[in-house]
Design brief:
With about 400 residues, the protein is mostly helical. The chain is built from 20 helices and 5 strands.
Length: about 400
Amino acid sequence: MSGITLRIWLLEFYALALALIRMPGGVHTDEAKYLLSIPYPHPPILRSLFAMLREMPLQEFFIRFLIASALVQAVWLLVDIGYVLSHRRRIVLVLSWLLSSALVLQAGTVMMVSLTALFGLVCAWLALRPQPIRQTSAPLLACLWLFALFSVYQSVLYLPLLIGILRAAQTSYRRMLLFLALPLLLLAMYTLINPLILASMVNVSSQDAVLELGVRLSNVLWISLVAGSGIVTLAGIVGIALSKRIDFIATLFLLSGFIALTSQDYYAILLTPVLCAGVMLLLGKRKISGELFIPLHILSTAVFIFMAFPRTPITPARMTMRYLAEQNIQGFVLIDGPFGHEWQYESIGHSIRRFTQTLSSSIEASAAAIVCTKHTCEEDVSEDWMRMEGAPVEVWIKR
């Protein structure tokens, strides 16, 4: 077995571990949207591909492993641009990606943001290669841009890198406008004719609108630290600043502005490709000591993973549906209270429906169970139901 083949297999085992540590927790609401291809909040390409595997055994594990594998194997892009560095400095560059706390936390999740980061790393790789892309390759880049946009809206945040790549290739302004603006126009048209997407955007923006400036800034700081485990964050920002590369500076500001507007921890991985590019730029100036960087990076990653890894081991939806299966309860389930798409995904073998006071008696009579996701449902259910003891949440079955 050659050295490269062995490294590929070791990376696959690492990706497998990243996928497996996320499996016990179950599917969360956003993950369920993509696995079920719910028509919001993102365009259709990737979520439709995921949904095509709905009937596949172990669909959840397969997609988790697929995403983790793609992110981990993407390190070869950094190896390619790092060939000009010494062996130890290449190790620093590789570990800045593989051991970033954002990648460890996000690689095993079924989240579109992880694949957006992969697109960002491809853009950073193209921007840092010594030779610019050929003019004949510009249409292929435009196709990649179109694919990325119609998979995840956040792909637009890497637009400055694409502009820099095409400018380095001496692409005419007319062709740049065609390659970059036309996909954006098509995406805008798609968004306008899909009201669910617009409603989702308005809902998300309204949730974060109440955040004060100080809270937003502290969120940006925290998410930036998670993106590069602190050490890569600092080194990456310094490297970008010293390089004076407008494309990377603009992308960094664009990403930071977006995170300030929508402060979700899982957006940290969007910054990671740009920060790793900054590390590469800093390594090119021989400003990093590998002997000090590597142990500090490993230590800081362990600290941030401990601080940021979800503490809830398993979702209520998975626990409850497993409990119903163990009790051999068949038929459709009524849910009293708020619930997300994870209940829909986990309810294999059960149809679910919202419980309301106006529900017809025939529908209630044919239900197998009532699951309560609010404080209590004792006042809502009739005397025909009895509460089950030992259930993970409040569950009622027929007497």
